[in-house]
Amino acid sequence: MSVVFLVLLALALSVAGSEVVLRGRKVQSAFGATVAVWATVGGFLLGWFWGRPSGRASFPVFWAGAFLTWFGIRSHLESSILLRLVYALRQQPKSAAELLEEYERFYGPRQRVEELVRSGLLERREGVLVVTRKGKWILALARMLRG
Amino acid sequence: MIPPDLYALAGAGLIGCGFFAGRYREKIFILAGAATLASTVVLVSVSRIHAVDAFLVCGGLFLFFFGLGIVRIMLHRSASLRMLDRFAAGRRETTAREDIARRFGDLEKFRLAVPEAGRYRLTRWGRIVGASVAILYGAMRIER
């Protein structure tokens, strides 16, 4: 039981640590920092588990899965259009036009482009926005994985 | 006795293959993941490995499957990724209106809201989701 508690504690520590390094930024803008937090906490725990029959592969699979789950939920929550629409409808019913306007005020194309620039996926060259090498690499990976 | 690490490696490999093979069809990914998880739970329970190892193997594979499932949704639905795609194709328009408009259909499809006199009204399920989102936005300091 104490091992399960230790793992849960490490998960809580990683989630809290990630929130600290995010400092209000979106997770795609601070991806490297959050990976560092999870790798550090996971690294300590891996040392602890190393001698167990499940320490060398099961724990890394567990930790990778936990990170993917956290990253997916966190990223989905902050960027999901659908969840934002539901959130906007909490107070009162709204028309499609009102929802569209409200959403674009919150995270419209301008903010989205800024976020892509901050993440290093887009850059301004002589006043024109172009996809960076990192952006091209991400796109190639995404195309391969989504078919 | 098969070492627990082998279950984890084989399971993660199978789920990973299901993720790749199921990139066109969601069902393939879900079936591959569910079958892997179910067979791992059965194998682990009959092989009498320590409870901690069983927790790490089964919990780890579940999280791996669930995490990849969310990543799959992001890959298919991300408006930012679509926008980046448009920039790469040389199209400079930055609108996400199409993506937003598509979500109006999802509001109804997932029974989160119903149209009523030209306006969307949350269903009971939608109100529960909305309240949960508000709590999570607060906890994660997401701008409201």
What does this protein look like?
The complex is a heterodimer of chains A (147) and B (144). By secondary structure, chain A is mainly alpha-helical. Chain A contains 7 helices and 2 strands; from the N terminus they run H-H-H-H-H-H-E-E-H. In chain A, helix 2 runs antiparallel to helix 3 (58-79). Chain A is globular, with a radius of gyration of 19 Å. The N and C termini of chain A lie far apart (42 Å). The model of chain A has no long low-confidence stretch (mean pLDDT 89). Chain B is mainly α. Helix content of chain B is 73%, strand content 6%. Chain B is built from 6 helices and 2 strands; from the N terminus they run H-H-H-H-H-E-E-H. In chain B, helix 1 packs antiparallel against helix 2 (26-46). The mean pLDDT of chain B is 89. The interface between A and B is large, with 70 and 82 residues.
Largest interface, chains and sizes: A-B, 70 and 82 residues
Elements of chain A, N to C (H/E): HHHHHHEEH
Helicity range of the residues of chain B?
Answer: over 70%
Structural class assignment of chain B:
mainly alpha
Radius of gyration of chain A: 19 Å
Oligomer: heterodimer
> How would you state the average pLDDT of chain B, rounded?
89
The largest sheet of chain A is: 2 strands, antiparallel
- Derived structural class of chain A: mainly alpha
**Average predicted local confidence, pLDDT of chain A:** 89
* Main beta sheet strand tally, sense and closure of chain B: 2 strands, antiparallel
Distance between the termini of chain A: 42 Å
Number of helices of chain B: 6
String of helices and strands of chain B: HHHHHEEH
Poorly predicted regions of chain A are none
- The shape of chain B, in one word, is extended
Fraction in helix of chain A: over 70%
Percentage of residues in strands of chain B: 5-15%
The gross shape of chain A turns out to be globular
**Please, how many helices of chain A?**
7
